[in-house]
Amino acid sequence: MINEASYWITLAHLPDWGNSKINNLIIKFHHNYQISIDEFFNLDEQVWRKEYELEEKQIIDLKKAKSEITNNSFIAESLLNQGFEIIPITLPEYSQTLKSNLKSKYSPPILYIKGNKSILNEESIAIVGSRDASKNALLFTDNIAKKASIESKTIVSGFAKGVDKKALDSAISYHCNSVIVLPQGIMTFTSGYKDYYKQVVDGELLILSTFFPKLPWKVELAMARNPIIYGLADEIYVAESSEKGGTWSGVIDGLKKNRRVFVRIPEANEKNANNILIEKGAIPVDINGIETQANLKLDDDNSNIQTSIF
Amino acid sequence: MMNRIEAEDRLLKTFKIPNFYDEQWITISKILNGEKVLLIEKTGFGKSLCFQFPATVFDGLTIVFSPLISLMRDQVKKLNSLGINAKCINSEQTIEENNQIINEAINGNLKILYIAPERQENSEWLESTLKMKIAMVVVDEAHCISVWGHDFRPSFKRIINLVKLLPKGLPILATTATATKRVENDIIEQIGDNIISIRGNLMRDNFKLFVIKVSSEDEKMMWLGRHINSFPGNGVIYTGTRVNTEVYANWFEYLGISSTSYNAGLDSESRVEIENGLMNNRWKCIISTNALGMGIDKPDIRFVIHTQIPQSLIHYYQEIGRAGRDGETSYVILFYNPKDKSLPQAFIEGARPSINKYEKVISTIKKELLGERELMKATNLKLNQVRVIKSDLIEQGIIREVLLGRSKKYEFIPKSKKLDNDAFEKLKESKLKDLQSMIDYVEAESPRMKFICDYLGDNSKQEYINCDNTSEKKINVKIKPEWEEKLKDFREDKFPILEVESKGSKIVNGIASSFYGVSDVGKLIYSSKYENGGDYPETLLNLFVKAYSKNYKYENFDVIIHIPPSISGNLVRHFASKVSKKLKIPISHDLIKIRETRQQKEFENNYLKAENISDAFEFKNPTRLKNKNILLIDDVFDSGVTIKEVGKYLSKLGVSKITPLVIAKTVGGDVL
Known about the structure:
The structure holds two protein chains of two kinds.
Chain A: H1 5-12, H2 18-32, H3 37-41, H4 45-50, H5 56-81, E1 85-88, H6 96-106, E2 110-115, E3 124-129, H7 135-150, E4 154-157, H8 163-173, E5 178-181, H9 191-201, E6 205-209, H10 219-232, E7 235-240, H11 245-256, E8 261-264, H12 274-279, E9 283-285, H13 293-298, H14 300-309
Parallel strand pairs in A: 3-4, 3-7, 4-5, 5-6, 7-8, 8-9
Antiparallel strand pairs in A: 1-2, 2-6
Chain B: H1 4-15, H2 22-32, E1 36-40, H3 49-57, E2 61-65, H4 69-81, E3 86-89, H5 95-106, E4 112-115, H6 123-129, E5 134-139, H7 154-165, E6 172-176, H8 181-191, E7 196-199, E8 207-213, H9 217-227, E9 234-238, H10 242-255, E10 259-262, H11 268-279, E11 285-288, E12 301-306, H12 313-320, E13 330-336, H13 342-349, H14 355-367, H15 372-379, H16 383-395, E14 399-404, E15 407-412, H17 421-443, H18 448-455, H19 481-491, E16 497-498, E17 510-515, H20 521-530, H21 538-552, E18 559-562, H22 571-583, E19 587-588, E20 591-593, H23 606-613, E21 617-619, E22 629-637, H24 641-652, E23 657-665
Parallel strand pairs in B: 1-6, 1-7, 2-4, 2-5, 3-4, 5-6, 8-13, 9-11, 9-12, 10-11, 12-13, 17-23, 18-19, 18-22, 22-23
Antiparallel strand pairs in B: 14-15, 16-17, 20-21
């Protein structure tokens, strides 16, 4: 796989294709024809046209991409030399949770990671919430982390201020494995890395990005990263959400896809949109992340899970 | 694809060369066909043409990884004179210059771009590679990728990884002049992916090879002093150590023979100046460590003389390869004193720090992400030790280098294997075997060139008549008494220099009365210092006074100041007092330490040494020193950090000048 890295980088970031088209192509050469990515790129144009039924525009794109593999080799070498890894969607190490949550339509074709990649296939929860989180939201975050630690679940968060940062730090203090999903290319993650180096070395933290490795932080990337956080987790815990922004749209999207989203029940004086999310179908939980009685009655499955924990 | 006739037509037009050698054309046709080739050909064969020609044919840029700035510059100059747009980016040019060149590469204005493999560590470079149209990649001096070679460079390892990532069909050429079969196989295995190896013969029939057996260093010095001017043209003398480049250059200067010394410790400006001087035959010879030469394309180096055997026959072949590129007769002489073996042997044996130092680095890096300097501070290891350890640990996959923005850090690789000491042992054994090949060469009775070619895996059948084992007369050293006299006079006339001058300090370069390791000087100092041997003996005082009279007889010093001790009690104070009495220069004992310092020798690197004595000194009654000319005395000069610090401090007090004079100067490796 290592020698294919520059091919994967090239394919994964084909401009204007979107994950869906790229994944469909991967399915074709990997599953249907069972050839490797470099073999695919070295196929004759006619084969692309006839057997892969690619359109002329796509063939032009792929030809251009092919000429860029050399360029991406330089980045790939530096990336791999620094211990980053590339995990294509075709490998079992790729997060199966992400794949089943986002399907071929939205799953990123490759993941860039550093750290203990086996974490990717552990049972996981995401803790999300605002950058300017309230005391309660942070306490909730800490409680959820503690709970996850007891249940040996991995915590996925977004390495932003507020809830994200708290989720990470609590996970570390409870020796709970965690994944941080970067809002930037993985090679531009520098200052934060020094602080969390020890955890990466100890195998408790995995750093993950889906963007071109050299892309610096951008608001758009922070937005685009949210579905990955939600997708990597089996369950989503919302500490605090306003009525717009990344947390909000992520939860709304999750609810549409019938994901299990738990939202902290806010206190009466709190100004946030938690209650609205609960109205829209999120599962209300208390400050300890425990579902309220009212809900338990509605959902027998959940009550089973709760009893099995304690 | 073009055929040979078309290609040679183009060759004549572009390079003003009528045709290719067969091996050149075989290589070029494969390159034009998008294949990967390893080309092993002797110096002067025309390896460069094998990528330069295709580079001018391809639509796009050829990137050449080369370890040597001088070589890059040289080739760029030549290509430019042919009207081919080639440039190099390197650490000796300004960032602006390099950026300008990178822009040209991006805009498609360049045909060939030379870069050092270390450039892969540069973030801006990586980003710019995304925008270039790259047609071919060349790895020059490809033997640098093999630990079994004579010049392994970790940064080349990365180039191999890059080559593996490049897409099929992108032509790649790796070239070297010196690769044994083992190194060749190693390169092929590492690059893999159907690389084809093309190997030419290594015979250099314009060489006249001699081995001169001697029984002392003195014999070498005397023989060279007497004969060097009778050699035709200009050449290079390789000594085994930096200190010997100085000793021989001083000796030649004493004899009025035009020469200069060169080593990797010189600043880049001096190095470029000497390299240019070499090209212009400014000196009869340059006396150098093996730092000089690889890649210097001077066609008419008429002699290459080694006063010390290199570490292996492959080193030797590489170093003598610089002679006679123009094909004219060139003298290749090797001195051998059986004792000489101990230097490369010690080098091989001591090439690696002890295992506990490795473990210290590993455990430090496990805890924290550190840069080189931080690592030195955290482990109290010397720079070169840290570098050796780092590169071994990277090679063994225990740590890796990462970039945090612009700074390089080292991180531990989780779940990596334990440190493999056996690998070091194996490497050491292999190096000792290589050294034996050098001794075998000295003792060989067969044709010397054939001996070398066989060793390098070139088995082509040829006639060898160019050495003292075939048609040339053997050289024996016979010494006349007058030369012994000359050498003795020289020894009493030349002193080791203490290089301490720096901007903003009034301190000037001083001298030592001797090298620490010469005759009994070191032993006498050691005995007084550490074995309760009492004050420094008369011998040392006499030596010191002699050095003074030779060098500073006419200098008017106002006062002697000595370095205050850390452990050796009043040795230096007493010694300086005796000097003061003898020279009739007043002495002051007022330079004191205002805080506790530890012995400098406890610290392995200069950062910690500097930290240890920074702001540690004070002079009582400082105003008295205004405009005074000072003779600063100490016993042993090692790193010079203390003397420089004192110089800096005294300069602030308004002294007019400080001249350091010490009993002995150490040379890397002396045990204090």
